[in-house]
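The data are quoted verbatim for reference:
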Amino acid sequence: MNDPRTTVVVITHNRRPELLRTLDRLAELPEQPEVFVTDNASTDGTSTAVALRHPQVRLVRPGRNLGAVGRNLAVRRVRSPYVAFCDDDSWWAPGSLSAAADLLDRHPALGAVTARIVVEPDGTEDPIVEELRTSPVPGPSWLPGPALGSFLAAATVLRTEAFRRAGGFHPRLWLGGEEELLAADLAADGWWLAYAEELTVHHCPSVVRDSTRRRRDGIRNTLWFTWLRRPVRPALRRTLHLARTVPRDAVSVTAFAEAAAAWPWIVRERRVLPPNVEERLRALEDSQRTSKARRYTG
């Protein structure tokens, strides 16, 4: 069942064993998608190992760790109408890429579709799936599933041109909640984002990760997105909410300090979202106040 409609893009940094496992799984997919790997300056022989074991994979080597922007570099080379992201510790289930492409074919105003996430090796659902399934974001009845205010890059298929026109991932955000800004810009361009229960991504969380830095960058990026795109009152309200709810520790203090230090370029790049998109974000924000799967508050 070769299906050339979707290209898979993976970013990696010093996770050679996990990446090779992911590429093995992707190579087994019936869709046989073209796969790009952006090696963000790994020093563990990642590129050499990929070239030897998966010579069909197209390697992108920027020479430094660009974080999420590594995805942008790969998408520039994508020729298919749709692009699926996954991380080096996750992979798509057989048939899900074709099912996602069918949904995007069927609904011209659908910009991105996010899959159910199954955590391995136990095969349990990620807690965030229930939030996707019960998303409070208002949307049109034609959507194939609940409307979303954001997406999870490692579990989402997007329209390639929509991604490019929205500018891809912002170069300053690096990694950690980097999807929120892009999702808002996609919505501002008129695209809808949705969850689709019939799609599945498997995630076997890597043990090679800097959770402290990820939490710090996640808080900082949430603040940056809020100040870049939200009207003054909602931005102030969300900033105060974060200040009250994040752990009172050095990581949070550093995150707020880094966010505040960026104020000059934030002011230059600030562009408030249209009211209809802000309405979706308010609905999502109200729901997240009671979320059990909050990413950056614990």
